[in-house]
Design goal:
Layout: E1 4-8, H1 12-23, H2 27-37, H3 43-50, H4 54-57, E2 61-72, H5 77-82, H6 87-92, H7 96-103, E3 106-109, E4 114-117, E5 120-123, H8 138-151, E6 157-161, H9 177-186, H10 190-197, E7 202-211, H11 238-258, E8 266-269, E9 281-285, H12 287-293
Parallel strand pairs: 1-2
Antiparallel strand pairs: 2-7, 3-4, 4-5, 6-8, 7-9
Helix pairs in contact: 1-11, 8-9
């Protein structure tokens, strides 16, 4: 039976436990390597020091712990029932977001690729253009953004690490990010602002675990030599890709342990067809509980 190995990169203790379980080491091993590396750690040196082979690195099924920020007005009851959903699912199933848009008179047909609002139909059938032109007017930009959000960027996103997940520039702690793009397309900013103003809508930080295989490859892209690059997907085999992903996880683990100045904001992108059942959710935090748990002031 394959052993499950849980890496919780959101915390030092969770990071250490993942390393211990994966590589069959303990705190004394970490202390020995600390003396050995003198602050100059690297993946290659760490694996050589422990005499870890590729087969050893590939052992076990890896689960990754990550943090997702959301808002809702039902005390997360829909999450308890349906789990965490991607954007398409959230706009299709019976969720607070779907009900809110219905109350606003907004109808979004994901499969039919259209939005209906105030007797007007917005056609989303064209293929997303991968770039924005300087000649695009505001209406054109708004259409492109909605097409992008609904059909190219609808996966569940979360954080393996961040100084403060509530500080993310998309402001997911005050409303679903998609509402901003939708409001701009429909020319009605109340679609975004009314969600923010409604005191029943509360922010939550969801801590959950997910199989590494359910994360997109670009989650693990990095400039480091050992890490996965987009162009390498064209010629590396599955074993080589898996090794690079696991080395990336080890790098983040060592950075968590040894580098106090490490920039810790790195994001988890789930595959489009991946959802998170409630059984995979470890804890639901209020913003205050999250900040207390992670020592954020």
């Amino acid at each position: 039976m394959t052993k499950n190995i849980v890496y919780d990169l959101t915390s030092i203790n969770g990071t250490m436990k993942g390393l211990f379980d994966h590589l069959n080491i303990n705190a004394n091993t970490i202390k020995s390597y600390t003396k050995h590396c003198m602050g100059e750690y690297s993946i290659e040196d760490f694996l050589d020091f422990l005499n870890i082979t590729d087969d050893g690195l590939l052992s076990g099924e890896i689960l990754l712990v990550t943090l997702h920020v959301t808002t809702n007005n039902d005390n997360c009851s829909s999450i308890r029932e349906l789990g965490l959903l991607n954007s398409q699912q959230s706009l299709t199933l019976d969720t607070p977001l779907k009900r809110y848009l219905q109350q606003k008179g907004v109808s979004i047909d994901i499969l039919g690729r259209e939005i209906r609002y105030k007797e007007k139909i917005y056609d989303l059938s064209r293929k997303y253009a991968s770039s924005f032109s300087s000649f695009d007017d505001e209406d054109e930009k708004a259409v492109k953004w909605v097409i992008y959000k609904l059909y190219e960027d609808y996966q569940i996103n979360s954080f393996f690490g961040s100084d403060d997940v509530l500080d993310y520039g998309g402001y997911c702690n005050i409303r679903p990010e998609f509402l901003m793009n939708l409001a701009e397309l429909l020319g009605d900013m109340s679609i975004e602002s009314d969600w923010k103003k409604n005191g029943d809508n509360k922010c939550y930080v969801i801590k959950f675990h997910v199989l590494m295989s359910h994360c997109t490859e670009f989650t693990f892209f990095d400039e480091h030599r050992f890490a996965l690059k987009k162009y390498e997907l064209d010629y590396l085999d599955d074993r080589e890709i898996e090794l690079k992903k696991r080395k990336w996880i080890l790098h983040q683990s060592l950075a968590n342990i040894y580098d106090e100045n490490y920039t810790r904001e790195y994001t988890c992108f789930l595959k489009f067809d991946a959802s998170v059942p409630f059984s995979n959710i470890i804890k639901i935090y209020s913003p205050e509980e999250y900040k207390t748990e992670y020592g954020i002031r």
